[in-house]
UniProtKB/TrEMBL annotation:
<dbReference type="Pfam" id="PF08719">
    <property type="entry name" value="NADAR"/>
</dbReference>
<dbReference type="InterPro" id="IPR037238">
    <property type="entry name" value="YbiA-like_sf"/>
</dbReference>
<feature type="domain" description="NADAR">
    <location>
        <begin position="46"/>
        <end position="173"/>
    </location>
</feature>
<dbReference type="InterPro" id="IPR012816">
    <property type="entry name" value="NADAR"/>
</dbReference>
<protein>
    <recommendedName>
        <fullName>NADAR domain-containing protein</fullName>
    </recommendedName>
</protein>
Amino acid sequence: MTSIVIPPPVTGPGSSVLRPSTFDMPVPTAGPPIRFDHVGEYAGFVNHSPHRVLHKNKTYPTALHLLEAMKFIHQPALQERIRTCKDVTDMYPLSANLQEHVRPDWGQVFLKVMEDVLYLKFKQHPTLRALLMRTGIADIIYADENVYWGEGPTGEGLNELGKALVHLRERLRQEGEN
């Protein structure tokens, strides 16, 4: 992006301060989207990356552990079973077997909960946060076949994880993160 020199304000008797319109300034372009999966430079962006997350004085092995535990917010014993599950691949069947205990509002709150979990993860891991902030204003795409969280096999998925990361990046930017 080229830099713009803003001239000093034009003033004079009876005149108000005139400045160039912000509409005249160039809009930064996003560039190509940032694509990530469980390998490579952006592998830490996935929910199940090995980045611990501290929540209410308890450490969760991954953000995904915390997200799954939040399904059972009124069931502390079930939350603890998920939190202490060592391997993320063992956690999925455990959570699936507990579906009758999932909080009734989960369908309405899980995207917000996901963003809050990602916020904790990225606030607690400065290297990940810096990597996210370096994505600038580019779209972020989870290159996964899951049609909800990722782009799906044909590229027409909802990409909700990518969107959540874009929202998080904006939230961090508004808080003054670099």
